Amino acid sequence: FQERSSIDKKYGDLSAYGFIRPHIGCIVNAAHIVEYNSSCLVMSDGVKIPISRSHKKECKERFNDWMVKNR
Asked: Smallest Cα–Cα separation from 60: which of 16, 30, 32, 31?
């Protein structure tokens, strides 16, 4: 869908619902992550999403928190 707002604002709205931001231009639903490694996320449809160095720590923390709460 299309919406006019900044990705920062949208991430602020979605982060409480299990969404993770692996790099500046992408937000993903943690429920669809099937593999996490130090350089990328592998999604349930096979797409690999790179993790930027600047988002690596937060991405790892949010994914670990999500795993504890939901698995």
From this structure: 30
Helices (H), the chain: 7-14, 56-70
Tokens 């930027």, located at residue: 52
- List, for residues 3-62, the tens digit of each pLDDT value: 677 888 989 999 999 999 999 889 999 999 999 998 999 999 999 999 999 999 999 999
Joined together, the tokens standing for residue 59 give 């991405």
State how far the Cα of 69 lies from the Cα of 44, in Å rounded to an integer. 19
User: pTM for this one?
Assistant: 0.83
| Rounded distance between C-alpha atoms, residue 23 and residue 20, angstroms | 9
- Among 14, 12, 18, 13, residue whose Cα is nearest residue 63: 18
